[in-house]
């Protein structure tokens, strides 16, 4: 392993199995060296210049010759390009390609993350030049062939800090027929910014957008998928200006069923820009001050609430999985330092928009399926056989009396969630239900959406920030005109598509799982759509990883100021090497290593997902309340260590307020947010990838004091000695 670095591709021969039955191998050939630059801090030790990689998975320092340090100074964060790869008896050698600045500079964590995860953060010159040629407003020629909706009071409803508005809504009562046989319901219009009108297939803007695949959201900064002139200008449904849009026009019954729908291009004029907080206040009190300011729009908002209640009936009837979660928001000051971490309130206005977007997405998927046109569906399959077995064993171990079938429906999961919502261990049960599910991906093979209980589902409502939505718009437009949309395959201008498809074969495809049902034979067109789906899915994961990395860095930086302080928290995960605890006041997660649990043997019960002391019977499971002290923060490793505090510990600085309730687990706390949401926090799709816990540390940080937080797992079936410190 000395001759290879993180992200190198190698051939390995399996030579034996360890005592746990895991295969061990030997590198026999280095197939491909990673061309990705390495980010780290420049150091000088005994006259030798070297860079310590920020990503500890690289495991080795990079030697820098004296003439290759550029203008970098010791301690600065730099980007290194490898000149010589590592060898069995020699360290890797590199040269400094870019100087990012001091580690404490505002926004440095974002600069590191975008390079660490290869997030494209600069638009190409051709893309910028093309964006400059776009108009500043809707031209008369753009209106041709479009429905004029400027007199329809469409409004946008977004968060207070939203800068781009890609969806607008309007609802009115609908009735058909007379007397008892009359059909009553709602007419719901969902208007989405028509990005495809300005971003032509294969253009420089399109190539850059495809390369990014999604906007990436960091605290205080967004790396957009499209140039600002489009995302915040032409394609943003700003109030009181004409904008081009694609409309999903639906008739919805009182039971929440979509009885009819149609798609058409239109021109709209947003009559108001609402915030979620404002709409929730109006719906809560139609005679209050907020309602008085928007008196002319109150009836429209009440209609939206009416269709929401109808759609909610349909959701409950389908048995869609719906867990209570807590989302958090990091509030930073001007220097990028965390001021506080607060729960993000999800009110009725969020749910109104959420259900409207779900309805439009379902109609989009149905339209693509009915037209027999290839496209990207948002697929979320049910649990794998292995995860089903783990969940069954867990439900049996806790004596619930309920389980799931061999071919479970979403309703079975929802039934268990509803039946256990008032139990003391509800937190733990809901977490296990959530962990048993798979990740949602983009694919041309429609397998339905398990979590939302839809036979077909796709993404139509956010083309400003998601490339799959832009592709769906193009497919719908092509079908409406009787044409067929083709992904670009020519060397120019579609070379980026082919290049990225080849890259998928080498690495990106390994990040996501394909659906279990694969076509026996795929045409060239089908393969192109599969590659596009894999690319969008992988880059979505990349964006999530980069965002989580920045949040973890900020939280570590924040907690360094609170070393030694005590807090109450709740166990959010139990492993063989310790407990992950989320603090009540700060929503920060850290590890209580198993050596900090006391001077006795602890066994990890995989079925119950808990640690149990053999002498006292003390149990620590998901949902158990504990009191901890912040003991160590590893900024480079993005890790926070806690130590358990109890009333018998002489190290405690004051009486314990929250006693560990491991025996009965009666205390409850919000479930750690594991939902995957759309960029606006709307669509409740499920992010079902289990968090990677306890990754072992390597390289420079693996020296003194790293054993405790390294995530060394003790065997689940054997005793592990614990020494009290």
Q: Based on the structure, what is the oligomeric state of the protein chains?
A: single chain
Instruction: List segments where confidence is low: pLDDT < 50 over at least 5 consecutive residues.
Output: 490-515, 647-725
> Approximately what portion of the residues adopt beta-strand conformation?
25-35%
The biggest beta sheet reads: 5 strands, antiparallel
Mean of pLDDT: 82
Number of strands: 30
Fraction of residues in helices?
25-40%
- State the shape: globular
Task: Decide which structural class fits the backbone.
Answer: alpha+beta
Specify Rg, calculated over alpha carbons.
27 Å
Largest sheet, spatial ordering of strands: 5-4-3-6-7
- The CA-CA distance between the termini, in Å, is 34 Å
SS element count, helices: 14
Describe the model.
The structure is a single chain. Among the domains are: 95 residues, OB fold (Dihydrolipoamide Acetyltransferase, E2P), CATH 2.40.50; 255 residues, no CATH class; 109 residues, Beta Barrel (OB fold (Dihydrolipoamide Acetyltransferase, E2P)). 26% of the residues lie in helices and 25% in strands. It has 14 helices and 30 strands. A five-stranded antiparallel beta sheet has the order 5-4-3-6-7, covered by helices on one side. Strands 8-15-14-11-10 form a five-stranded mixed beta sheet, with helices on one face. The longest helix has 36 residues.
């Amino acid at each position: 392993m000395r001759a290879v670095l993180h992200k190198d591709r190698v051939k390995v021969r399996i030579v034996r199995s360890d005592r746990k039955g895991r295969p061990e191998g030997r590198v026999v050939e280095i197939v491909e060296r990673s061309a990705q630059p390495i980010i780290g801090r420049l150091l000088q030790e005994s006259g030798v210049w070297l860079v310590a990689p920020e990503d500890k998975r690289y495991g080795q320092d990079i030697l820098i010759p004296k003439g290759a340090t550029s203008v970098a100074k010791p301690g600065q964060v730099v980007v290194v390009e490898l000149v010589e790869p590592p060898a069995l008896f020699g360290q890797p050698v590199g040269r400094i390609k870019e100087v990012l600045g001091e580690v404490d500079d505002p926004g440095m964590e974002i600069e590191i993350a975008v390079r660490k995860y290869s997030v494209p953060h600069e638009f190409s010159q051709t893309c910028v030049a093309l964006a400059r040629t776009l108009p500043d407003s809707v031209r008369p020629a753009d209106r041709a062939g479009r429905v004029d909706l400027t007199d329809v009071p469409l409004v946008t409803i977004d968060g207070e800090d939203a800068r781009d508005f890609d969806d607008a809504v309007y609802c009115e009562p609908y009735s058909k027929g007379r007397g008892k046989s009359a059909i009553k319901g709602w007419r719901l219009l969902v208007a989405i910014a028509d990005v495809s009108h300005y971003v032509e297939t294969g253009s420089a803007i399109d190539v850059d957008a495809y390369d990014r695949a999604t906007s990436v959201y960091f605290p205080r900064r967004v790396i957009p998928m499209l140039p600002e002139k489009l995302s915040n200008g032409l394609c943003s449904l700003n109030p009181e200006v004409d904008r081009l849009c694609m409309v999903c026009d639906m008739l919805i019954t009182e039971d929440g069923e979509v009885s009819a729908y149609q798609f058409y291009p239109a021109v709209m004029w947003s009559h108001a820009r609402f915030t979620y907080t404002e709409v929730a206040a109006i719906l809560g009190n139609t005679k209050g001050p907020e309602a008085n300011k928007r008196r002319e729009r109150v009836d429209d908002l009440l209609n939206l609430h009416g269709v929401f209640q109808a759609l909610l009936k349909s959701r409950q009837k389908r048995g869609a999985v719906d867990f209570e979660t807590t989302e958090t928001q990091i509030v930073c000051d001007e220097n990028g330092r965390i001021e506080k971490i607060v729960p993000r309130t999800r009110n009725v206005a969020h749910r109104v928009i959420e259900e409207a977007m779900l309805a439009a997405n379902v109609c989009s998927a149905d339209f693509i399926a009915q037209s027999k046109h290839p496209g990207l569906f948002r697929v979320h399959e049910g649990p794998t056989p292995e995860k089903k077995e783990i969940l069954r064993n867990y439900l049996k171990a806790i004596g619930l009396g309920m389980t799931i079938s061999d071919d479970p429906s979403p309703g079975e999961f929802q039934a268990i969630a509803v039946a256990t919502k008032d139990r003391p261990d509800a937190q733990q049960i809901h977490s296990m239900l959530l962990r048993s599910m798979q990740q949602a991906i983009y694919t041309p093979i429609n397998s339905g959406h398990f979590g939302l209980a839809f036979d077909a589902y796709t993404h139509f409502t956010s083309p400003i920030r998601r490339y799959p939505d832009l592709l769906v718009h193009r497919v719908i437009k092509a079908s409406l005109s009787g044409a067929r949309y083709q992904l670009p395959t020519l060397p120019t201008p579609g070379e980026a598509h082919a290049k990225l498809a080849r890259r998928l074969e080498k690495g990106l495809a390994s990040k996501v799982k394909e659906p279990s049902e694969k076509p026996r034979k795929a045409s060239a067109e089908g393969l192109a759509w599969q590659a596009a789906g894999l690319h969008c899915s992988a880059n979505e994961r990349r964006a999530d990883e980069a965002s989580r990395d920045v949040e973890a860095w900020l939280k570590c930086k924040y907690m360094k100021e609170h070393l030694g302080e005590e807090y109450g928290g709740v166990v959010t995960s139990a492993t063989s090497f310790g407990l992950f605890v989320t603090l009540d006041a700060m929503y920060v997660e850290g590890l209580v290593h198993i050596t900090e649990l006391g001077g006795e043997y602890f066994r990890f019960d995989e079925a119950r997902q808990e640690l149990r002391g053999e002498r006292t019977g003390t149990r620590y499971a998901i949902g158990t309340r504990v009191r901890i002290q912040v003991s160590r923060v590893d900024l480079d490793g993005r890790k926070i260590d806690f130590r358990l505090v109890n009333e018998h510990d002489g190290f405690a600085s004051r009486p314990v307020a929250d006693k560990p309730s491991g025996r009965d687990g009666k205390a409850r706390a919000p479930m750690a947010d594991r939902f995957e949401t759309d960029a606006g926090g709307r669509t409740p799709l499920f992010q079902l990838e289990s968090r990677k816990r306890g990754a072992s540390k390597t390289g420079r940080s693996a020296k003194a004091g790293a054993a405790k937080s390294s995530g060394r797992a003790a065997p689940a079936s054997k005793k592990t000695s614990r020494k009290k410190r």
